[in-house]
Design goal:
Blueprint: H1 2-5, H2 8-14, H3 16-19, E1 23-27, E2 33-36, H4 38-44, H5 57-67, H6 75-88, E3 92-95, E4 103-110, E5 116-123, H7 146-153, E6 157-162, E7 167-170, H8 172-178, H9 182-185, H10 198-212, E8 217-224, E9 230-241, E10 247-256, H11 258-280, E11 284-289, E12 292-296, H12 298-303, H13 308-311, H14 325-333, E13 336-345, E14 351-363, E15 366-375, H15 377-423, H16 429-454, E16 463-465, H17 467-482, E17 486-491, E18 499-501, H18 503-520, E19 525-536, E20 540-542, E21 545-547, E22 550-559, H19 566-570, H20 589-599, E23 603-608, E24 614-621, E25 646-650, H21 654-667, E26 670-674, H22 677-686, E27 692-696, H23 705-715, E28 720-725, E29 744-746, H24 751-763
Parallel strand pairs: 17-19, 25-26, 25-27, 27-28, 28-29
Antiparallel strand pairs: 1-2, 1-5, 3-4, 4-5, 6-7, 6-10, 8-9, 9-10, 11-12, 11-15, 13-14, 14-15, 16-18, 19-22, 20-21, 22-24, 23-24
Helix pairs in contact: 5-6, 15-16, 15-21, 16-20, 17-18, 18-20, 22-23
Length: 764
């Protein structure tokens, strides 16, 4: 044993001291510091100049005293006391480095050759008051050999082996790390603690080769203790030489880093779980410091149409739209900001609606802000579509009411003008005035009809329609109407699905859209009419329409014109909105088309941008039935007018009621009249017989024209019914008489039209 340790002291200074976490220095009888390890300067935090050779223990203590490490007082006196304590070898005292967080304990031990070894160890004394003078004496120990002192004091495990890796000396810390008492550890091979796997064989080969190459081996390895437990050990192995300089064994220093590695692994696993959770989240997450982005997950990058790499390093404000930039600045700077909705800016400059909240966090040891982002563009479009639909619905109700009253007024004017015309000489000057007035009434009626179309209250005659045939039949007309500078190009589906629409109104839709396209293409262009079968598996949100899932026959009308600005596009379907000069357009074209498509259970939206043309998309629901064989309509016979048939006239507008009664009487009918539903029901109970009920569909006092008709059919089973309405909305009367066909005439009606309809109903 003595032979193996004779030259150990000189080797310890080069190997063991290098790996110790404690500060160690050795001074001889002349007080000269003869050895020290790197940890000493780190713990004492003294300038490097202090450690320049030659260095005495007094120089070292004086540097600490002058800084105030030993408390208040004369530095020379305190330094001298410190040296005396170290020389006593029975001393333990504290120092408080001015720039350190913990106190340092100085522990001195004397060797048998008269040298002194001093250990400097960090000690937490935060709960203890600092004394006025920190140097004090304590209990002592007996002098022992240098090797024993070092091995018993250090926390690192220390083993000495022969050339075959058999342990011949060790310290208590090594026994604790390896889990074997000293009497059993001596004589064991260090390689016996390696796991039986390929990695361990590589470790063993590396250690053996280092001995052959006379170099230090250092690494972190896993060991298996005899009880089966595993530990992670950081080791450093140095060849040990004998007196003649030959290698006679190894000196090994080990440190148990299991707890540290487990903690690090726990942190890594937590970070991995966090990263997987955040990276896999559908919500966007970004972290910024002073608006500079330091982290972005993939969802956030996807929301803004870019990559995480491109976002990191940029300002978070770069991704706020110009409209909401100030709002974004306010939100991201608040300590805790509740969720708010704003417009973000994607990489390509487009706008994305996002719901955002922000909070303060600690990121990589410094304050930062975490921002959570949810893409709510679809939700925003749906909300805007709902608001737009509600707005148009309100406008429709208002427009329908106005059109109803307007039709009543036009009916009175038209009827009285026709009566005047009958009483005047057709060759007189007054006849031309009457004709001009009647033409104005007809234009007013057409305007009212467009208002009712927008309000979805026009009278439709829906039938199963082949849209391809309708488009083909209109192509020639449209080409002739638009002129030679615009090319009309139909692109039709091979086998279009049938749809139920009013074909006459659909032709008007195509004509109106073509005329709008012509105005947008003053120098010519192309107009594409395309049909296609389309199945939507889920709801489709299109500004300002939500199109439910289902089967549709889609009609696309696309021009190559000037296009619409976003401001114009937002109001395109509103009645009386027009971009044309005053007097050129009424602003009811697209409004009428919107109402017709909605009334036909379809959907419409516009895709347009300045310079990119305009595309109108119409989604018409697929009909469940197939195309039937065409059949001609049967002509209706008619009685001679004025055969003394009895007609009950029900009309709440007194002027229009008086006119209707006058016209019927002049046609040869006998009439009874009622101003509302209650009066009409009372008359039905009193009258012995009526041939025809001529009633307004919408009446005050809570009794509708449909209820009067049911009561009339019940009292007089053979009675005929002719409805009239200023709305003309088929949906309000299509099922009022399920056992009979419903007949109707829309207001305002001309005298000859009324006469013909009366004949047709009585003859049916």
């Amino acid at each position: 044993m003595a032979n193996t340790l004779d030259n150990k002291w000189s080797q310890l200074g080069a190997t063991l001291f290098e790996d110790l976490s404690e500060g160690v220095f050795v001074f001889d009888a002349s007080l000269a510091v003869v050895s020290r390890n790197p940890a000493l300067q780190r713990l004492l935090r003294l300038p490097a100049a202090v450690f320049a050779a030659p260095l005495t223990v007094r120089d070292l203590m004086l540097a600490c005293a002058r800084r105030g490490d030993f408390g208040p007082g004369d530095a020379e006196t305190l330094a001298g006391a410190a040296v005396d304590h170290l020389l006593d070898a029975h001393t333990s005292f504290l120092a408080w480095p001015a720039n350190g967080s913990d106190a340092l304990r100085f522990k001195a031990r004397e060797t048998e050759d008269g040298a002194h070894i001093v250990f400097v160890i960090e000690e937490d004394v935060s709960s203890k008051p600092r004394p006025a003078t920190s140097i004090r004496t304590g209990g002592g120990i007996e002098a022992r050999k240098l090797e024993a002192i070092i091995l018993s004091q250090i926390r690192e495990g220390f083993v000495v082996t022969d050339v075959n890796a058999v342990i011949i000396d060790c310290n208590p810390a090594a026994c604790e790390i390896l889990g074997v008492p000293e009497e059993k550890l001596l004589g064991m091979s260090t390689f016996s603690f390696l796991p039986a796997d390929d990695a361990s064989h590589e470790v063993e080969d590396g250690i053996r080769n280092s001995l052959d190459d006379e170099r230090i081996w250092s690494d972190e390895t896993e060991i298996v203790r005899p009880d089966g437990t595993r530990r992670m050990v950081q080791s450093s192995i140095t060849p040990m030489r004998g007196a003649d300089g030959s290698i006679i064994g190894r000196i090994g220093v080990m440190r148990d880093v299991t707890a540290r590695r487990n903690a690090e692994r726990g942190v890594r696993e937590a970070e991995t779980k966090f990263r997987n959770l955040v990276e896999g989240s559908l919500q966007g997450v970004l972290i910024h410091r002073d608006t500079k982005i330091v982290y972005v997950n993939q969802s956030a990058a996807r929301i803004y149409g870019t990559t995480a790499e491109r976002m990191v390093g940029r300002s978070v404000l770069d991704y706020c739209s110009a409209e909401d930039l100030r709002r974004g600045e306010e939100g991201i700077r608040k300590p805790i900001a509740p969720a708010w909705k704003m417009r973000g800016r994607r990489e390509d400059g487009s706008v994305v609606w996002v719901e955002v909240n922000a909070r303060a966090v600690d990121w990589e040891g410094a304050p930062a802000r975490q921002v959570t982002i949810v893409d709510v563009s679809e939700k925003q479009r749906a909300e805007e579509a709902l608001l737009h639909a509600q707005k148009l619905e309100s406008l429709g109700q208002l427009t329908g009411g106005i059109a109803h009253d307007f039709n009543n007024l036009l009916g009175v004017i038209s009827g009285n003008l026709e009566l005047l015309r009958e009483q005047m000489d057709p060759r007189g000057d007054h006849a031309s005035y009457i004709e001009a007035s009647l033409r104005s009434v007809r234009r007013g009626a057409e305007l009212s009809k467009r208002l009712l179309a927008f309000a979805r209250k026009q009278s439709l005659k829906p039938e199963l329609t082949n849209l391809n045939e309708l488009v083909e039949s209109m192509t020639t007309i449209l080409q002739r109407t638009l002129g030679e500078t615009i090319n009309v190009e139909p692109k039709l589906a091979a086998e279009p699905w049938p749809t139920v629409i009013d074909p006459g109104q659909m032709e008007n839709v195509l004509l109106n859209l073509a005329l709008n396209a012509r105005d947008a293409m003053p120098h010519g262009g192309r107009l594409l009419l395309e049909t296609a079968n389309l199945s939507l598996e889920q709801d489709l949100v299109r500004d300002p329409t939500v199109i439910p899932a289902g089967d549709y026959l889609k009609l696309t009308v696309r021009d190559t014109g000037s296009g619409m600005t976003p401001e114009v596009l937002a109001k395109a379907f509103e009645p009386f909105f027009t971009t044309k000069d005053v007097g050129v357009g009424s602003g009811l074209g697209l409004a009428m088309i919107y109402g017709f498509v909605q009334q036909s259970a379809g959907h419409i939206y516009i895709d347009s941008a300045p310079g990119a043309g305009t595309t109108i998309h119409l989604y018409l629901p697929r009909a469940s039935q197939s195309f039937p064989a065409r059949s001609g309509s049967k002509p209706k016979s008619a009685n001679a007018p004025g055969s003394n048939e009895i007609v009950l006239v029900v009309e709440d507008d007194s002027d229009l009621r008086d006119l209707a009664v006058l016209l019927l009487n002049r046609m040869g009918y006998r009439t009874h009249e009622a101003a509302d539903g209650q009066m009409a029901l009372a008359l039905l109970e009193k009258l012995p017989h009526i041939d025809l009920l001529f009633t307004d569909l919408v009446l005050p006092q809570g009794v509708s024209g449909a209820e009067i008709a049911k009561a009339a059919r019940k009292r007089f089973p053979g009675v005929k019914v002719l409805f009239t309405s200023g709305y003309g909305e088929s949906a309000t009367f299509e099922n009022v008489l399920p056992d009979a066909k419903v007949e109707m005439i829309s207001k305002p009606y001309r005298r000859e039209v009324l006469a013909k309809r009366l004949q047709e109903v009585l003859a049916s």
